[in-house]
Each structure stands twice: as C-alpha cells, then as structure tokens.
TrEMBL record:
Protein name stated in the entry: Exosome complex component Csl4
Organism: Acidiplasma aeolicum
Role, per record: Non-catalytic component of the exosome, which is a complex involved in RNA degradation. Increases the RNA binding and the efficiency of RNA degradation. Helpful for the interaction of the exosome with A-poor RNAs.
Subunit description: Component of the archaeal exosome complex. Forms a trimer of Rrp4 and/or Csl4 subunits. The trimer associates with an hexameric ring-like arrangement composed of 3 Rrp41-Rrp42 heterodimers. Interacts with DnaG.
Residue ranges of domain Exosome complex component N-terminal in the record: 6-43
Pfam families noted in UniProt: ECR1_N
Subcellular location: Cytoplasm
Biological process according to GO: RNA catabolic process; RNA processing
C-alpha cells in the first residue's frame, strides 16, 4: 500500500473489496493498481478510486532522469512509455514514448535485460526522437514480475527471486531495486 496520496504506475492503491477501479487504475490480483502517475482520489459515495494526473507539462532534456514502463520489445530495442521526470528531486508527470537500445544478447551478460511491463528508471540520451539508457548503477528496472506467474520479483541474496515458483530471473536492475519508494531516496513524490 502507498502511504502518500501520490501513486506511481504499478502502485497498489486499494483492495478490490474496498473500491471499484476508477480512472487510470486497473484491477490486479485482488488489488487496484495505478496505471498513471498522479494524485489518488477516493470517491466514498460511489466507492470508486481514481488517479488524477496533472496537465502541467515538464520538458525533457538530454540527461533528464525519467521513469517509465516497458510497453514493447523488438529484439534490439524496446519502447518505454515515460510517465514521470525527476526535476530537482521531485517527480513531475510526462507523457512520451522513448526508445531504449538493447545490447546483443550474450555480450551483456544478462539473459533478460528487461521484460514487458517492467517499471524502469532511465536517463535521456537524446530528444527528437527520445532515446534513453538504463546502463548505469542507479538506472534500470525498479519493479518486475515473474515471467511465468507474474508475481512481483523480490531481491534475495542479490538475485531476483519469485517466492511463488522459486524461480530466479535476471534483469538489469537499478541499485535500489525493491525500495518501497521506487522513485529513489533523494526523490520525493510531489
Ligand atoms: Zn513465479
């Protein structure tokens, strides 16, 4: 559960027995999960819970630290749906698609660098079109799910582990993978 009133995509914001999923949310495994960065709005009359984004647009520049979800993988590149930018230690909503170039399998040492639906922290390397990289210690996957059962993977003895099927998987994870605040220590949810 999220303490703050700001939700990031993938955050569990309520149980399905408490509310009906409203705007920018979806039911998942008995919970209601945010699909967008925004403020949590609870409508206790209609028993719905929604996430309302801001319309303020923050420009993206080279070097910007951004957050997004992997929505497509084409072999040598992936498409990341960016939803937030870190500006002065605070997250602001953005809405862009970015491309991430993936190294040739085998050379990188990762079986799977990323998987569909992963939440990543990335750095912008070019704009128009937007390209990002995740190949730095503080960058990479922040949330991922088991490829078999879709359970969220935890970090156990420095490996990604599924407590449901006892599988070990590999991703290029950020150094703070598994932190409750997925936006990072120096980064408040504003
Ligand atoms: Zn599993």
């Amino acid at each position: 559960m999220v303490d703050s009133d700001i939700a990031l995509p993938g955050d569990i914001i309520a149980k399905e027995e408490e509310y009906l999923p409203g705007k920018n949310t979806e039911p998942y495994d008995g919970n209601i999960v945010a699909t967008k960065l925004g403020r949590i709005v609870r409508d206790d009359k209609n028993l719905t819970i929604s996430v309302v984004g801001s319309n303020k647009k923050t420009p993206i520049g080279v070097g910007s630290i951004v957050y997004g979800k992997v929505i497509k993988i084409n072999g040598k590149d992936a498409i990341i749906q960016l939803y937030a930018i870190n500006e002065g230690g605070k997250l602001h909503p953005v809405d862009h698609e970015a491309k991430l170039m993936l190294p040739v399998q085998g050379k990188s040492g990762y079986t799977h660098i990323i998987s569909l639906g992963d939440i990543v922290r990335a750095k912008v390397t070019s704009v128009k079109p937007i390209y990002v990289t995740i190949f730095n210690t503080d960058l990479g996957v922040l949330k991922t799910r088991c490829l078999i059962c879709r359970n969220e993977l935890i970090l156990k003895n420095n490996v990604l582990y599924c407590t449901n099927c006892q599988r070990i998987e590999t991703r290029k994870i950020a150094s703070d993978y598994g932190n409750i605040n997925i936006s990072g220590d120096n980064c408040e949810r504003s």
